[in-house]
Amino acid sequence: MKKLWYKLKQRISVSYGDDSLNRFLLLTSLVFMILNLFLGFYPLWAMAVLLYVWYFFRFFSKNYASRRRELAAYNGIKWKIKQKWGLLRRKFSERKTHKYFKCRRCSATLRVPKGKGSITVTCPKCGEKANKKT
Ligand SMILES: [Zn+2]
Questions:
Q1: Confidence (pTM)
Q2: Cα 134 from Cα 110, distance rounded (Å)
């Protein structure tokens, strides 16, 4: 038994271990498990098990490079969602005073004050002009 414990300890010491993606996987898996307890929705349980297996796979993995790439991709997605959510919140809080447009050419987000009638909006990024009603 002691030998097995020693082996496991050694195996963990060379494993990739935890990162923020792994914590996310574990937490989501737990949430799905709990939701399944209340809803009795089988696919949720299957998803939870899959996420749990993925968590263990990543935790005990020795392929650090691939795990770091996954982490970078996860952080990229998280950052994009954060940006989008921030913009949505800002649009909502300024819905009475400002209007938001997307630039036709570079799809940058443009913000103009409301109630100025028909104006020409110039994109500060690419210089594209567009007539907009405010
Ligand atoms: Zn533009």
A1: 0.75
A2: 12
- Which 3 state secondary structure label does DSSP give 111? strand
Sign, Cα dihedral of 82, 106, 124, 110 = negative
The CA-based angle 116-111-120, given to 5 degrees, is: 50
Q: What is the mean pLDDT of each run of 10 residues along the chain (134 residues)?
A: 91 94 97 94 94 97 97 98 96 95 93 92 93 89
Ligand 1 mean position, distance from CA 15 (Å): 47
* Ligand 1: centre distance to CA 100 (Å): 13
Residues 76 and 82: their CA atoms lie apart, in Å, by: 10
